[in-house]
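>> received
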Amino acid sequence: MSSARRLYERFRQLIHEGAKFGIIGIVGVVIYNLVDNALLSLGPLKAATVAVIVTTLISYVANRYWSFRHRERTTVPRETVLFFALNGFGLLIQWAVVGFTYYGLGETGKLANFIANNIGIVLGTLFRFWSYRKWVWASKDETGEHESLEPALAATSAGPTAAQSTAEGADEPH
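>> returned
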């Protein structure tokens, strides 16, 4: 098995979830910017809050039933509370960037608001992806432990698993 193929296999779930999460994120950013721009006259933080609420509702449904649908389920109320709480923390990250730009730097124009919002979205999204995988829709490995974002590091430091050795041996001609 080629090195690239082995690397892909180790990170396959992360790649697939990340791609789906990214697609949902891109759609969310477009919706967010449309709502935020339409409501900017209310003030930058109020507009950001309403836009985040709208995109959070959309992303919850999309992530639960598409990005992370294959993961084990607990209860919908538990997932919902965690999702919205962690998303709220992502909003705080975004507010920090928007508030610093608007109030700290005095940049009050639409372009500055757009840039600050999107920087905040990127930082908040990195946190959200990590936290959703870790706490909202966490998978467990064979030992019952929640998986990490770096499955290849764990496999490399401990050597290949029996399943990997068997799979690799099956690909080689005898």
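>> Residues 138 and 146 are 6 Å apart (CA to CA).
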